Amino acid sequence: MTADASVPLPSAIPLSAPAASVRRTRVVVVGAGPAGLTLANILRAGSVDCVVLENESREFIERRPRAGFLEEWAVRALEGRGLADRLLANTVVHTECEFRLAGESHRFPYAEVSGQCHYVYPQPLLVTDLVREYADVRGGDIRFGVRDVEPAGIDTDRPSVTYTDAETGERIRLDCDFVAGCDGARGVTRGCLPPEHVVIARHDFGVGWLALLAEAPPSSDCVVFGIHPRGFAGHMARSAQVTRYYLECPPGDDPDNWPHERVWSELHERLAADGAQPLNEGKLIEKRVLAMHNYVVEPMAYGRLYLAGDSAHLLAPIGAKGMNLAIHDSLLLGDALVAHYGKGDESGLRGYSRTCLRRVWQYQEFSQWLSEVYHGASSGDPFRAGIATARLRRTLGSPAAGAGFAELFLGKDTDY
Question: Are the CB atoms for 64 and 31 separated by under 8 Å?
Fold first, then answer.
């Protein structure tokens, strides 16, 4: 039997993807980090329907090691919205930091100077709290493990986000009024902004940082910054049994170049100071090299798409600002959307990008200033090293300079 040439063989029949199931919500929040979850909780409290899409599992985001310092204004803002009960019950409060330079230890009492403090609360714990509040307590809609997220129509009054359900493989389209891009530096939403509409400003610090987590109790009751010709070193408590360390290294270095013995040898060397407690050594449970660069997307909105957190701006961990800035964005965006739906007030949405960027650029400037303090001594440039030392000694010795540093370090009154 021969095939009829006028009838295509089955293998030649064009195949098309099945149509996506269509559902409706007011706001689609892409990404379940601190930015997306803070925003989602504000919307839920304000009776604004939203759906949160996250490509990782709940277990993953609740364990992913990230930042650990919250500025007091951020904690008070979360507290005022009923999102900080567990944080306040379990946090450790820091009121000082310590600089170690040329074998000397210099304490800086920033709480005494500024009236504000830092709260040590690892990001995975905050994410766990925010997921629990949004999904378990307030009954919010959050979908984990989604794939192939595709925003569309953001320059129209009928935007949508399509994704693949991880369990069923079904394509689902969420028609909405607004899309909140909270999916971080590697997410998809930032790429939806047309290149002719945005400027992405970038800065490369020219160094790498080896980020380490050690199963070892903290060796100081505060954050320690080691300024050393061999490179910067940092010590930050994460819990009673886990400590975050940083070591300056060449950009793009391989973590395998840093075995246990070398890591601890360099930490002992770079954090040495007369009278300092010896470091508590322990097993290294995380070891990765960070690319130390910053960027800012300006403006942070286009059409019906609003960016928040790392999707809009990236801060290297030099000043411990990233999580705080993400929360700031989400507070502004959440309030703006609630005002839009509740009062017909468009002013918050119109001014969102402009208002956010004032703080973003202040934090970027502080990050660059502090980078010179950290890295000048190891730059190989005697002039930069001298400037860095002078900058630090002035900060520590001058009440006026110290007050300015504390204001920026704590994020106090930085919306100039």
Answer: no
- Whole-prediction pTM value? 0.91
Question: What span, in angstroms and rounded, lies between the C-alpha atoms of 309 and 106?
Answer: 33
Distance of CA 305 to the CA centre of its chain: 19
Sign of the torsion angle spanned by Cα atoms 398, 403, 404, 406: positive
Calpha distance 102→104 (Å, rounded): 6
What DSSP character marks residue 65?
Answer: -
User: Strand pairing of 283-298 and 199-215?
Assistant: antiparallel
DSSP state, residue 310: G
Local structure of 131: helix, strand or coil: helix
Question: Nearest-CA neighbor of 233 among 368, 375, 365?
Answer: 375
- CA–CA separation, 257 vs 274, rounded Å? 29
CA distances from 349 to 190, 230, 337, 375, 382 (A): 18, 47, 7, 39, 48
Contact 233, 99 (CB under 8 A): no
pLDDT one digit per residue (tens) for the chain, 416 residues: 333 333 333 333 334 456 779 999 999 999 999 999 999 999 999 999 999 999 999 999 998 877 788 999 999 999 999 999 999 999 989 999 999 999 999 999 999 999 999 999 989 999 999 999 999 999 999 999 999 999 999 999 999 999 999 899 999 999 999 999 999 999 999 999 999 999 999 999 999 999 999 999 999 999 999 999 999 999 998 888 999 999 999 999 999 999 999 999 999 999 999 999 999 999 999 999 998 999 999 999 999 999 999 999 999 999 889 999 999 999 999 999 999 999 999 999 999 999 999 999 999 999 999 999 999 999 999 999 999 999 999 999 999 999 999 999 998 766 65
How far does Cα 359 stand from its chain's mean position?
A: 15
